[in-house]
Amino acid sequence: MRIRVVPGRPIPVRSARENPPSAFREHNCLKSVLWLYFPSMNVVVEPILQELAAGQWGLFTTAQARARGVSRANLSHREQDGRLERLAHGVYRLGGVPVAPLDDLRAAWMSTEPIVLAWERGSTPRVVVGGAAAAAVHECGDINPVPYRLITSERRQTQRTDIVYSRRHLDSRDIVVVGGLPVTSIERTVADLVDEIGDLSLIGDVLADATRGERAVDLEHLGLLLTPFAARYGHPRGDGPALLEQLRRSAGIDDIAAARGLVQRPAIGAALEGIVGQAVREQLRTIVAGLQPQLAGSVELREHIERMIAPVLVDQSRLVSEITDTVLAPLLQQQREQMEHITKSIAAQISESLPNITTPAIDFSVQTGNSPAPTVGATEKFSRKAGEQ
To answer: Which part of the chain is the AbiEi antitoxin N-terminal domain (predicted)?
Structure first.
């Protein structure tokens, strides 16, 4: 008995009464052959591949596709006609997806656990990108990331020349997710590069890039991570901070530059602006409080003070901008001088507009919170009587 198979139609199945046992055997044999060579005959392939690639940078693995009924033959056919591009063994990119600099690294990382989706691996990664490849993900330095160093807690081997495995345990604080890829933190990355590469000038570039912009580098933790390598670079055994200082010098990083970068961060800049603004308001309140007994209830005085406040607030914003170029003692010195200039300007305007008024003495030390900030030199006070020049 012959059975005609029409694509898209189910194979007719008859009862044992209608077909002899030989017909059953022929039907089952044909069915097995069809499923062996065409397991995804009724699967619409494109939506499956697009869904896989959507959450994986436009990439997917052969294992992920097969688990959803897409055969290797389907993938090979699409690779031949340009709808797919193979990046590594068992890893494809959808045609038309823009090429990204990290695609090869992503493909290598995805191939280490090909059946698991990338977004499912982020929370508890078993494979973490480290070394120069991690620095590339952080966009720090210019070290060739190939071969890609992949860190695991279990022993792994590979014949691929673009992957190198390292077996060791990573603390949770030394793992971060950047753009969907689990990588070593910038502190752990720098410490690993000191161990692996040894060229402090190259590693210094990585650290210099890491300290720019909005990123924060935990220098104390980095010094701790550098402890095992201190003696190798001529420092006392276990003196990680000394090695860190050498690394910072090679990177051209000094305390002034580091503090400037810190102050330029929006949150810290806003907090500093609040401190300076509060100091200006306190000085104005001191002036007003000293003048009130002399001209109690004077509408003219209140209006005059209000007119003077507006330019003071402008000066305050300019002061905060200038503070980003100074740190510690120089910062306080400039702030004190600016405050003195502002207050003397107010006193001069009052003397010219309202004769016979004595301007109260002003303390120019800057208060931060409940404790006075360090001052440069002696704290100055001044008093000015009307008519004095």
So the answer is: 49-94
Mean per-residue pLDDT for 167-191? 96
How many angstroms separate the CA atoms of 349 and 308, rounded? Answer: 9
Determine the 3-state secondary structure of 264 from DSSP.
coil
- HEC states along 113-125? CCCCCHHHHCCCC
Instruction: Work out the end-to-end distance of the chain between its first and last CA atoms, rounded to an integer number of angstroms.
Output: 121
Contact predicate 202/145, CB 8 Å:
no
* Three-state SS at 63: helix
Q: Supply the DSSP string of 105-169, one letter for each residue.
A: HHHHHHTTSTTS-HHHHSSS-SEEEEHHHHHHHTT-S----PSEEEEESS------TTEEEEE--
Q: Which residue has tokens 């940078």? A: 57
Residue 384 is classified by DSSP as: B
| Backbone CA torsion sign across 196, 197, 199, 201 | negative
pLDDT digits 0-9 by tens, 307-344: 666 666 666 665 555 555 444 455 566 666 777 777 77
DSSP strand E in 2-142: where? 59-61, 84-88, 91-94, 127-130
Is residue 362 within 8 Å of 277, Cβ to Cβ?
no
194 with 228: CB under 8 angstroms?
A: no
What structural domains does the chain harbor? 1-37 (no CATH), 45-104 (1.10.10), 122-253 (no CATH), 262-372 (no CATH)
